[in-house]
Amino acid sequence: MSIIQDLDPDFLRARQSAKWSSFDAPVLPSNPAEMDFAVAPAIQAAMERVVSQQKYGYSTRGPGSPGALLAESFCRRMLDKFGWDGADPARVVVVNDLIQAVMSSVLAFSEPGDGVALQVPSYPAFLGIIAQSGRQTVCNPMRDTGERYEIDAEQFQDAVDEKTRVLLLCLPQNPTGRVFPRDELAPVVERAVAMDMVIVADEIHADLLLDGRRHIPFARMFPEAADRTITLYSATKSFNIPGLRTAVMHFGSDELLRRFHSRIPPMLLGTPASPGTFATLAAWEESEAWCQALIKVLEANRDHMLSRLAEELPTVRMYTPEATYLAWADFTDVRMNAVPYERLLAEAKVAGGDGRNFGPHYERFVRLNFSTSRSVLDEKLDRIARAVKIGAV
């Protein structure tokens, strides 16, 4: 029996989380990066201790504080799980979430009008950060090889210039689920170093590589770029605790951290609430077996979804995600008289991720979340199949 426990739709709606509350029944949500599973037992126990011991006061600071323990736990995890011995607790900044981390990094290392480069399709919040900060988006569209999406290094070389100050990487990539090997990233990194860019490596899905793949932290993969790299990491996605708002930023050098704080005062960042810190410690220190069991469930769900689509909807193209619980579905070859996202929402009552939010020219794509029970996943696929057939012209 799996230790991964499904949660049924009625229970999920009653929790009033954004994923299940943004749409009224009978819509089934299939976009937000949140899973429909119960959390690991150790995390639940940590939260019960918070309640029973009324841990609602201010968190202590300094050595031995929850924040210090979290920084040490992060570095220990980087070494023990990912083989990276370069993480230093003294260069860890604990923040509420990675959106805050990315925005503060962009503000710290660029000026209004400067460029921020990233691969597209991209997590929509990253595009929003660039726009809201008054920076310019430098898109590096990924190339469709017919088997997967790959980085177009030549386009990147041409797109960036001396005004491109930040490279934002998503490792593994959201929404395509790619795990980039060193040789694919190398030309991009070489160009970024030559142009003196700061590199922000979002590794929030690093725990969820599939099919036996192993994550290599960017700063370990490219030690020549480590001193200019900010590594972002959190338990919120992989351990399904996004509402607990806790993440870490690791700065690759003392100088990089000094530059950051010269532009972003520590008091502006605040500190996470104690429950998120305790939950994250329980995730990283006590819940690895749960995470490994989760990966098996995600692999099975992914393969089931791909098999059904290949059999029932062969015109919907979806490459096998190498990581995460998110899939990037291409409806370009489907004869449909509406934007796919809108058709699926209106006819199938399935709320995927609207491809238009992931960058220019992705209006025929939908992001789908397969981290749910098999019964809910099959219901989504049944509805999508019916809607595609009804919508064909």
From TrEMBL:
Group of enzyme by EC = lyase
Domain (Aminotransferase class I/classII large): residue spans on this chain: 88-384
- Specify whether DNA-binding is a keyword of the entry: no
Q: Which Enzyme Commission numbers does its entry carry?
A: 4.4.1.13
CC cofactor: pyridoxal 5'-phosphate
Which InterPro entries does the entry mention?
Aminotransferase_I/II_large, Class-II_PLP-Dep_Aminotrans, PyrdxlP-dep_Trfase, PyrdxlP-dep_Trfase_major, PyrdxlP-dep_Trfase_small
Q: Which SUPFAM superfamilies match?
A: PLP-dependent transferases (SSF53383)
Q: Which GO molecular function annotations are given, in alphabetical order?
A: cysteine-S-conjugate beta-lyase activity; pyridoxal phosphate binding
Determine if Lyase is one of this entry's keywords. yes
Keywords of the record: Lyase, Pyridoxal phosphate
Q: Write out the similarity annotation.
A: Belongs to the class-II pyridoxal-phosphate-dependent aminotransferase family. MalY/PatB cystathionine beta-lyase subfamily.
What is this protein called in UniProt?
A: cysteine-S-conjugate beta-lyase
